[in-house]
Amino acid sequence: MKYSAINFKEKFDKFSEHFSPKIIAQMNEYFFKLGKFQGDFIWHKHANTDEAFIVLDGEMRIDFRDNKVDLKTGEMFVVPKGVEHKPFAKNECKIMLVEPAGTVNTGDAGGDLTKEEEVWI
Amino acid sequence: MKYSAINFKEKFDKFSEHFSPKIIAQMNEYFFKLGKFQGDFIWHKHANTDEAFIVLDGEMRIDFRDNKVDLKTGEMFVVPKGVEHKPFAKNECKIMLVEPAGTVNTGDAGGDLTKEEEVWI
């Protein structure tokens, strides 16, 4: 067992790519991932799992087909499984995602932005 | 589906009790809980689950039988299942816990500090 704190700033300093969350911790079969969001992501859904978004620094929006949620530092939202959503951030926004290991960033949508491999930092 | 951000400050303003985490969100079978820690908690372990501690504001320590982890704002640690631990905070520390629904705060230890009921705020 590794007895050391996981520091978000140290982890964020290790990558710059947008919409490519990196794993920083595991709890049972779930991963905690840090991500930097900027611009428009794509519409997608996760058929088999909810997905938690926690904003650590900045502002973002999650668009739904019939609504939206604005999030800022110190706020979170859980997107229910099967619900189409599209993350957006005008300026770079630092977030934490919590979701089951194996969750693909683009869900069922595929495409160029898909990260098939989940990467630890 | 409820389309609104969950704001940590608004939730923290709703309770003052120490070592009594309150549920603010659910993701699949897991709860996100906010807690205010101050002083010494008790030694305990969770036989069937890991437990994630995320420090939102302040400093705390998790003691283990053979080690310790110091945590401050912007840091996290996942206590592995079955590992005895004792949270401590000199001054009030605001944290988020992530753990399966039904996880009792004192694990297998019981005693006066046990909260049998998980409460939403």
* Distance, first to last CA of chain A: 17 Å
Low-confidence stretches of chain A: none
Give the name of the CATH superfamily of the domain at 17-100 in chain A: Jelly Rolls
CATH topology of the domain at 17-100 in chain A: Jelly Rolls
Architecture of the domain at 17-100 in chain A in CATH? Answer: Sandwich
Most extensive interface: pair and counts? A-B, 38 and 38 residues
Please report the first level of CATH classification, the CATH class of the domain at 17-100 in chain A: Mainly Beta
Strand content of chain A: over 45%
Number of helices of chain A: 1
Radius of gyration of chain A: 14 Å
Quick one: how many beta strands of chain A? 8
Oligomer: homodimer
Outline of chain A: globular
The class by helix and strand makeup of chain A works out as mainly beta
Which sheet architecture does the biggest sheet of chain A show?
Answer: 7 strands, antiparallel
What helical percentage do the residues of chain A reach? under 10%
The chain-level mean pLDDT of chain A equals: 95
| Order of helical and strand elements of chain A | EHEEEEEEE
